[in-house]
Amino acid sequence: MLNKEAFSNWxxxxxxxxxxxxxxxxxxxxxxxxxMTVFSVGVESWMTGTALAEESHNADAVMEQVIMALKSxxxxxxxxxxYEYGFMHEDGGESxxxxxxxxxxxxxxxxxxxxxxxxxxxxxxxxxxGNGSTGEEHGLYVxxxxxxxxxxxxxxEKDVEPLLISxxxxxxxxxxxxxxxxxxxxxxxxxxxxxxxxxxxxTHVMITIAMKPLKEKDEPMEYVRCLEIPMADxxxxxxxxxxxxxxxxxxxxxGRGRGGQIEGAGVARPTGAGSRGGSSGSxxxxxxxxxxxxxxxxxxxxxRWDGQ
Length: 308
What we know:
Blueprint (H helix, E strand, L loop, with lengths): L3 H68 L16 E3 L10 E6 L16 E8 L8 E8 L9 H4 L3 E4 L2 E9 L13 E2 L11 E8 L9 E8 L3 H5 L1 H5 L43 H5 L6 E2 L10
Parallel strand pairs: 9-10
Antiparallel strand pairs: 1-2, 2-3, 3-4, 4-5, 6-7, 6-8, 8-9
């Protein structure tokens, strides 16, 4: 039988053991929580990085199609500019919520696919953002139709079905180099968002697309590309670049004579269409001209000139 002193010592030893056990459980719980938190953050970061990489890949693919289509812009030799082959632009606000619409004549299968039978002939394309107001899914769409062989009652707004390019594009913005400003060595270009020369082509354009954010509360990421349209000079200086009005066998002619081609039945591709290469000139950011645009993220490392 234990005496009082031994029983008191036993209770003291038992109490210390219980406290140690409770502290061990608490420490183990804290360590488990820390490990789970670190693991969760790591998994979330990995998923976010993967999603951003996929978004960047999709944006580059969309942008490449748009750039190639603009470089493939077609303009025939003529004595004066033609509205039928001009560049048209409708301003739809500022990025990252812009919904601009642009239209131009081109050749080649960019934006319309390799299976299109009239890809090698001159055809007009229209690029715009479908906002879901007419039932279509929100995203970047394109319409394309031939210039020749259409009925008198042909209406592209009703008779041409839009083709979805990407449902991940949230906005589309297009700026044109101001044709009224003379170029000065070392000076940045002036960009405008209204194009009144609808019978001509802009010499340079800046394309900005914003991809849908991963989370609704996040701002969309913007991707910017600048390029020079090879055939633009043909529309601004038709006589100087076109040479003689009749005959001739120059490359890309649509007139009569040796080497000529029938308009709309397989035209020569513009020189440099689809090429990629170095850069030249200075770029004036849209912020410099139209004020702050801090409401969206911008991939400044992706602003570059495509080949001349």
